[in-house]
Design a protein that fits this description.
Shape: globular
Strand order of the largest sheet: 11-10-12-9-13
Helix content: 25-40%
Bound molecules: glutathione
CATH architecture: 3-Layer(aba) Sandwich
Order of helices and strands: HHHEEEEHEHEHEEEEHEHEHEEEHHHHH
Distance between the termini: 59 Å
Radius of gyration: 21 Å
Strand content: 5-15%
Largest sheet: 5 strands, mixed
CATH topology: D-Maltodextrin-Binding Protein, domain 2
Number of domains: 1
Length: 383
């Protein structure tokens, strides 16, 4: 078991955690990771309070942006400012050509297609875990779509509204296959690499404490450093959202040397969020997400959506805006959902493109299936 202590940093722990975050920069390719400088590491006894880490000032959260008209702002600019991670394969990853791909990135495009009629009219803002909330609070971004867990404190005191969950996840633990570790209990006395500024860090503390498992958290500000430290053998396990272990686990030097334990340590409902204080914008992002669920349920996708405009089914016609004024009520064109499906796709298309069987990740749909297929995706009626 490996563990390093840097007593000099001990006093900085609180400050570090207050500013700490997952790495926001694009993850380097696996072969480039070996030569990196050892990352600064802090060994924290207690995870920092998120409110302290992520609030710019008052613990009550920012004042709601009264009368804010995000729609008008986005339409004036002709571009949607969307916060993503940028370093998470499958979800939002900055490619070599500067484009951003992945499931979360596509949900930025979904909103841009609905609001601007152009799914490509997105300015992506890569952000680490601690930056993500202040940049939304300040108005630098219009929506955050960055593997962010819906929690009560984020929804209330931090001043955000979460739209429907797009990816139901849970926290997992990855270990080396030859470690003999099969359960969390087997990790007693060991070390766990974890990102600061996340739900992950707190869940780790809660789960291990409640089960009486003694362990040492090894906390890093940048997510790339967490992975590198684990890969170098400095920790017995690496914990984060299971989806991230699956995708960014591919960046380990020899991915097949590692296994994700079966246990799920928490609920991590991930999805986009907006600021308090602009109900119409909240509605727009919410119904843009629902459009992708509804389209899959109705069997409408990017390849058949034009044919579906001539459907006999009133539900289809309402969804696509051929009948009714559903878009107008939000200040959008009535074909907002048509634009989303045509330009970005339905939920299944978005999911499969990023995480499906033809990707290196092949993440089973599980809870992210439609409600009538045993899952949790459920769009209210488009009427
Ligand atoms: N879902 C959790 C964890 C989110 C998180 O920031 N995870 C890290 C670890 S995978 C991450 O996204 N890293 C990529 C990055 O920092 O850009 C949360 O909302 O706190």
């Amino acid at each position: 078991m490996s563990r390093k202590l840097f007593p000099v940093f001990a006093l900085l722990i609180v400050l570090s955690l207050a500013l700490a975050a997952c790495g926001g920069a694009a993850a380097p390719a696996a072969e480039e990771t070996v030569a990196e400088e050892p990352a600064e590491e802090v060994v924290a006894e207690e995870p920092a309070e998120e409110v302290a880490a992520e609030e710019p000032g008052e613990t009550d959260g920012p004042a709601p942006a009264e009368g804010a008209d995000t729609l008008a702002k986005v339409q004036d600019l002709g571009v949607l400012n969307c916060g993503v991670s940028g370093a998470l394969l499958g979800f939002s990853f900055v490619e070599d050509d500067g484009s951003v791909s992945g499931f979360d990135a596509d949900y930025c495009k979904v909103v841009a297609a609905a609001v601007l009629g152009d799914g490509e009219a997105v300015e992506f803002r890569a952000s680490n875990a601690s930056e993500r909330f202040p940049i939304l609070q300040s108005g630098e971004i219009d929506v955050l779509s960055r593997n962010t867990t819906w929690t009560v404190s984020r929804d209330t005191s931090l001043g955000f509204n979460f739209v429907p969950t797009t990816f139901y996840d849970g926290q997992g633990m990855i270990v080396r296959k030859d470690s003999g570790i099969e359960t969390l209990e087997d990790m007693a006395g060991g070390t766990v690499c974890v990102n600061a500024g996340t739900t992950t860090e707190k869940n780790l503390a809660d789960v291990f404490r409640s089960r009486g498992i003694d362990y040492e958290p090894v906390v890093f500000a940048e997510s790339n450093d967490v992975r590198l430290a684990y890969d170098e053998g400095r920790c017995d396990g690496w914990t984060t959202d299971k989806s991230a272990l699956i995708s960014n686990g591919q960046l380990l030097a020899v991915p097949s040397d590692h296994v994700i334990l079966a246990e799920t340590m928490s609920k991590e409902p991930l999805g986009p969020l907006v600021r308090h204080g602009d109900d119409n914008w909240f509605d727009i992002v919410k119904w843009s997400v629902y459009c992708t669920f509804q389209a899959e349920e109705l069997g409408i996708d990017s390849t058949n959506v034009d044919d579906m405009l001539g459907s006999d089914d009133p539900t289809v016609l309402n969804t696509l805006g051929v009948e009714g004024d559903l878009g107008q009520a939000m200040g959008l064109n009535n074909d907002f959902c048509y634009q989303i499906i045509k330009q970005v796709g339905n939920y299944e298309e978005i999911y499969n493109r990023a995480l499906g069987p033809d990707t290196p990740y092949n993440v089973p749909r599980g809870s992210n299936s439609q409600w009538n297929d045993g899952g949790l995706l459920y769009s209210p009626p488009f009427r």
